[in-house]
Amino acid sequence: MARIEGTYGWLLLLLLAVVYPFVAGNSYHLTVMTMAFILAIATLGLNLITGCTGQFNLAHAGFMAIGAYTVGILTVDYGVPFWIAFLLSGVVSAVIGLLIGVLCLRLKGHYFSIFTLCVGYIIFLFIEKSDSITHGTVGIMGIPAPPGIGSFDFDTPMSMYYLALAFLVVGVWLMRRLVASIIGRSFTAVRNSDALAEALGINLMRTKILSFVLSVFYAGFAGGLYAGHVRFLGPDMAYVTHTFDMVMFMLIGGIGTVLGPVLGALIVPWITQYLQFLQDYRMVVFGPLLILLLIFVPDGIVGTYRKRRARKLAAQAAAKNRQSSQVGVKEAQNHA
């Protein structure tokens, strides 16, 4: 029943997303939502390594930048077709993630986080200083938009919106299957306890590396899609602050769930948009709101809903058991 309800919930969200362009006020709203979809894909990847496996990766924005710059460099400097460069964006991020994961995943806890923070800063410095490769602080301009597929073109805000939505749907579908699989359960076992996971016969290093590679694979593809959407890249996108934005999406939506990061990535950008009238002071307002949310809703929107639903079902089951016990006692008394 829970799985059917979950499917209906996802279908309802998909229906709302499909209808949204027809009720949006203007193309700016579509652009904001398209960016939210792209960030949701990247946040799904971060949630896999952080929420499901328990490893806090602070270099996630750097890997998203690697995917974006892969598309930018290949298309602008070498004339590679966009879709080939886009496919390579996830592959390049995954390969670099594999090399870095072999080193950093030997560390645990805050040591791992500090190491990845340094990795993210190194990625930023490489992008900023490597003028001959990444164009340095000037950035990469003139990235081509995703070319059309058949009769579908992606040269308008609405078409780009649906393209990002399609990739998000595929990303969510794959992530749900992954989390529900034996591999996903091994990730959860590692998050709960390294010792318990080893006792169950799980290879810790191999499991952590697989989770890390899949995580940055999502980030790379999100970066490639970002490059085709924005069509301009600068070193700033590798800042660790963008990783913290994605962490905020997870915390608000519900870390360790699939729906939570998606909801967070869709909700937070709109809140910041509506606080734009405060200009430089909007984060002064948004910061305390986030703190209050973490105090009173620490499990996020989805996590809180799940806990309340679990308590309600447990209370109903307990009431049903009490009722059955009372009926049994009465029948026994009648027979006596």
TrEMBL record:
Its main location: membrane. GO terms for molecular function: branched-chain amino acid transmembrane transporter activity. Keywords: Cell membrane, Membrane, Transmembrane, Transmembrane helix. GO terms for cellular component: plasma membrane. It comes from the Bacteria. InterPro entries: ABC_transp_permease, LivM-like. It is a multi-pass membrane protein. It is found in: Cell membrane. The chain crosses the membrane at residues 7-24, 30-49, 56-76, 82-104, 111-127, 160-179, 209-227, 247-271, 283-305. PANTHER family: HIGH-AFFINITY BRANCHED-CHAIN AMINO ACID TRANSPORT PROTEIN BRAE, HIGH-AFFINITY BRANCHED-CHAIN AMINO ACID TRANSPORT SYSTEM PERMEASE. This is Branched-chain amino acid ABC transporter permease. It comes from Verticiella sediminum.
